[in-house]
Amino acid sequence: MKRLVFWTSAALLAWAQAGYGLALAALRPRVRQAFASPDAADADAALPTVSLIVAAHAERDVIAAKVANALALDYPREKLEVVVACDGSPDGTPELARAAGADVVLDLPRGGKVRAQDTAVRRATAAIVAFSDANALWEPDALRALVAPFATDPRIGYVCGEVSFVNPDGGTNQEGVYWRYEMFLRARESDLASVTAGNGAIYATRRDAYVEVDPVMGHDLKFPFTLVRHGWRCVFQPTARATERMVPDVEGEAARKRRMMSHAWAIVLRGGLLDPRGWPTTYTMMIVSHRWLRYFGPFLHLVALATAPRWLRRAQLVGLAAALAPIGAGGRARLLAKYYILTQGSIALGLADHLRHGTEAGWDPPEGTR
User: Fold this and answer.
1) N or C: which end of the chain has fewer CB within 10 A?
2) Residue 6 pLDDT more than 60?
C-alpha cells in the first residue's frame, strides 16, 4: 500500500508539471492562429467601444506612464475611455492620473482591487470592459488585438492577452521561465476549449458577461471558470501583448506568490473551483490537471516524501538542501530548482495564511515591480 501511495502521488505530480503539457501538445500539435485584428482605417467603424480600467493603489511612480501608454494605443480615441479606479490611494495617485489625461478618475475608499474594478465597470458605458495593472505597458496594437475575438464568436465572453515579465535590473527571479510555459499551456487550452486562468496585465470581457465576485477573489483565476459555467467561452489572444516588471529576486517572488495564493485558496475552498457542475467534460479535465493538481502539489510532494523508499527519500532531502544552498557554480539550474521549491512552499503557506487569518481584499504593490 505504501508503494502504491508513493507511485500514485509521484504520477500525479508528473502529470501536473509535465504530462499535461505534453498531452495538450499531442492533442493540438499546432495552435490555432491568433484571431485577426482589424488594422485598416476603414475597419475603425466596426470596432467596439472600450472602457480600459486600471485599478490603482499607491501607484504614484507609474500611473502617469500607464495613462500615457493607454492614450497612445492604436485605437479610435472616440471609442476608448480610460478609467483609473483609485483604491484609497494615499500618495496622490488620483491627481497624477487626472493630470496625465485619464477620462475618468474614481477616488474611492479602500475596498480592494476587485471592488474598485466593480465600481469602474458600473461607471463605464462601453460595450467591452478591458483591464490592466498600473505597471503593465501595452504594445500599440494590443487593444485592437484584444477585442478582435469578440467579433468572431458571440459565445466569447472573456479574452486574455500575453504578458511578458521583464527584469531590467537583473536578479535571480525565474518567473519568466515558468510564465513562458504557462503561456504555452494557455494557448493550447484556448485552442481546445477555454483557458483555466488569465492574468491581470491584459484582459477584457463583454460588459454583459462581467460578474461581480467576492472582493478577496481576484479575476485572474475566478473569471474564466465562472464565465465558462455561465455558458461563455474564454480565450487567449497571443497578439495582444503587454510587459510588466517582475520582482527582482526569487525570494521576493515567493513572497508575492504567497500573497496571491492566499486569495487563490479562497477561490479553491469556497469560490467554486472544486465544483465541476456546469463545465464541459474537456474543460473539467483541464481544471483538474492545471488547477486542482497544481494547487495541491505541495501536499502531494509531502506524501511522496513520506512514502518513498528510504534511499529515495534521502536523495530528495539532499536535492532539497542543495537547491536551497547559496548559489555558486551551476547557479541557473539551482535557481530553477530553488524557484520551484519556494513556489511549492508559497502555495502551502498561502493556504495557512488564509485558514489562520483570512484574506484581506486590499493589496500593496510588490516591492521592485514599479
Assistant:
1) N
2) yes
